[in-house]
Amino acid sequence: MSTAATYKPTKQDQKAPFEVPVISVNGELIDEKLLSEELQYHPAQDAESAIQKAGQALVIRQLLKQQLKESATEIDDEEQAFQDLIENNINYQEVSDEDCQRYYEQNQAKFMTAPIMEVSHILLAVAPDDIEGRIEKKTVAEKLISKLLKDSSLFTDMVIEYSGCPSNKTGGSLGQISKGQTVPEFERQLFPLDEGIYDKPIESRYGYHIVFINKKIDGNQLEYSMVSEKIHDYLNVRRHRQAVSDYLYQLVEDSTIEGLELKLEQDNIFFG
């Protein structure tokens, strides 16, 4: 499958005359050269998106510099000064054990050991961008599955005749599979299944798979005591990130920024 190209400026791009906005933060201009240099740290699908990300990062940094200047803070290490400023201006409540237990109860599926599947398959191989070929292979797969559902003993012979996977030399066996061992799109469809021949072909980037689940060992629910520390750390990090985001958002709201419209989603408000 083809994916969208990612824009990443080259050295030539940085010298190229593509237009960069004139940005000011509370009346202080951001050097256009800084913006051109910052682009290399913000790859995106197009130049406009890269400029948006780079400009926003520089605006946030400029706001923090202005805050440090107002507080007359002596700066030896600018990055550390930024971090100290943020930490001194955010406030959030540490999660309680009740918060963690509630999260565990509402998300128990996240705290299970991965199932183990013993799987054999027939791969009807076809290129990701061969649309007509994929339609044809899916039709063939459906016909073969129909025969297997009536007589599963045909599986080994079909592996030899049809499978384009190296496992065709071992009866189509993929051995024992746990999560993370195969491509994601295959696993998403495979792991919810029960033992036996699956009555539909599974599509992946490699083609269509006819799967025979020989054995399935379900994952086990982990007890709260085994994951409480992990949940505690995760929720605290999430609260900390939200507190930082709120602080930076307020700085932006209290400032006059010209030349760039900031997009203050959680994922891109952070500087650097």
TrEMBL record:
One Gene Ontology MF term: peptidyl-prolyl cis-trans isomerase activity
Annotated ranges, domain PpiC: 114-215
Enzyme's top EC category: isomerase
Transferase in keyword set: no
Residue stretches in coiled coil: 61-88
EC number(s) given by UniProt: 5.2.1.8
Keywords from the named record: Coiled coil, Isomerase, Rotamase
InterPro entries reported for this sequence: PPIase_dom_sf (IPR046357), PPIase_PpiC (IPR000297), PrsA_foldase (IPR050245), Trigger_fact/SurA_dom_sf (IPR027304)
Protein family (similarity comment): Belongs to the PpiC/parvulin rotamase family.
Name the UniProt record assigns to this protein: peptidylprolyl isomerase
Natural source organism: Kangiella koreensis (strain DSM 16069 / JCM 12317 / KCTC 12182 / SW-125)
Lineage: Bacteria, Pseudomonadati, Pseudomonadota, Gammaproteobacteria, Kangiellales
